[in-house]
Protein backbone atom coordinates (compact mmCIF):
# COMPACT_ATOMS: atom_id res chain seq x y z
CA UNK A 1 0.00 0.00 0.00
CA UNK A 2 1.22 3.49 -0.73
CA UNK A 3 0.93 6.45 1.65
CA UNK A 4 -2.29 7.77 0.05
CA UNK A 5 -3.98 4.40 0.54
CA UNK A 6 -2.79 4.13 4.14
CA UNK A 7 -4.02 7.64 4.94
CA UNK A 8 -7.39 6.89 3.33
CA UNK A 9 -7.75 3.59 5.18
CA UNK A 10 -7.01 5.27 8.52
CA UNK A 11 -9.55 7.99 7.73
CA UNK A 12 -12.21 5.38 6.87
CA UNK A 13 -11.98 3.91 10.38
CA UNK A 14 -14.05 6.86 11.63
CA UNK A 15 -17.81 6.27 11.57
CA UNK A 16 -19.88 7.55 8.65
CA UNK A 17 -17.50 7.02 5.76
CA UNK A 18 -16.05 9.66 3.45
CA UNK A 19 -17.72 11.08 0.36
CA UNK A 20 -15.89 12.32 -2.73
CA UNK A 21 -16.21 15.98 -1.71
CA UNK A 22 -14.68 15.32 1.73
CA UNK A 23 -11.84 13.37 0.10
CA UNK A 24 -11.11 16.31 -2.19
CA UNK A 25 -10.99 18.67 0.79
CA UNK A 26 -8.74 16.38 2.84
CA UNK A 27 -6.37 15.43 0.05
CA UNK A 28 -6.49 18.17 -2.63
CA UNK A 29 -3.75 16.58 -4.76
CA UNK A 30 -4.94 12.96 -4.54
CA UNK A 31 -8.70 13.28 -3.99
CA UNK A 32 -10.37 9.86 -4.25
CA UNK A 33 -7.39 8.07 -5.81
CA UNK A 34 -6.47 6.26 -2.58
CA UNK A 35 -10.10 5.40 -1.87
CA UNK A 36 -10.66 3.82 -5.30
CA UNK A 37 -7.46 1.81 -4.85
CA UNK A 38 -8.84 0.50 -1.54
CA UNK A 39 -12.12 -0.47 -3.22
CA UNK A 40 -10.14 -2.35 -5.86
CA UNK A 41 -8.27 -4.27 -3.12
CA UNK A 42 -11.45 -5.03 -1.15
CA UNK A 43 -10.50 -2.85 1.84
CA UNK A 44 -13.31 -0.37 1.17
CA UNK A 45 -16.67 -0.28 -0.56
CA UNK A 46 -18.47 2.56 -2.31
CA UNK A 47 -22.18 3.07 -1.70
CA UNK A 48 -23.55 5.86 -3.92
CA UNK A 49 -21.01 8.67 -3.33
CA UNK A 50 -19.64 7.50 0.03
CA UNK A 51 -16.73 5.18 0.78
CA UNK A 52 -16.83 2.84 3.81
CA UNK A 53 -14.24 0.52 5.32
CA UNK A 54 -14.83 -3.25 5.00
CA UNK A 55 -13.96 -5.99 7.49
CA UNK A 56 -10.85 -6.74 5.43
CA UNK A 57 -9.90 -3.06 5.65
CA UNK A 58 -10.30 -3.08 9.44
CA UNK A 59 -8.10 -6.16 9.66
CA UNK A 60 -5.46 -4.48 7.49
CA UNK A 61 -5.55 -1.28 9.54
CA UNK A 62 -5.62 -2.00 13.28
CA UNK A 63 -6.25 0.78 15.78
CA UNK A 64 -3.21 2.91 16.53
CA UNK A 65 -4.18 2.88 20.20
CA UNK A 66 -4.81 -0.72 21.32
CA UNK A 67 -7.03 0.56 24.15
CA UNK A 68 -9.42 2.06 21.58
CA UNK A 69 -10.34 -1.45 20.40
CA UNK A 70 -11.46 -2.57 23.85
CA UNK A 71 -14.88 -1.66 25.22
CA UNK A 72 -14.87 0.42 28.37
CA UNK A 73 -15.25 -1.62 31.51
CA UNK A 74 -17.00 -0.25 34.57
CA UNK A 75 -14.83 0.23 37.67
CA UNK A 76 -14.92 -2.56 40.23
CA UNK A 77 -16.81 -1.75 43.39
Strand content: 5-15%
- Described by the principal axes of the CA atoms, the overall outline is elongated
Q: What integer value in Å does the Rg equal?
A: 14 Å
Reading the helices and strands in chain order gives: HEHHEEH
Count the beta strands: 3
How many helix segments? 4
Judged by helices, strands and strand pairing, the structural class is alpha+beta
Report the average pLDDT across residues: 83
Molecular structure report:
It is a single chain. The chain is an alpha+beta fold and 77 residues long. The protein contains four helices and three strands, in the order αβααββα. Helix content is 42%, strand content 13%. It has a three-stranded antiparallel beta sheet. The termini are far apart.
SSE topology:
Blueprint: H1 3-12, E1 18-19, H2 20-26, H3 33-41, E2 44-47, E3 50-53, H4 55-60
Helix pairs in contact: 1-3
In a few lines, what is going on in this structure?
This protein is of the alpha+beta class. Helices cover 42% and strands 13% of the residues.
Key terms for this structure?
single chain; 77 residues; alpha+beta; 3-stranded antiparallel sheet; 4 helices; 3 strands; 42% helix; 13% strand; elongated
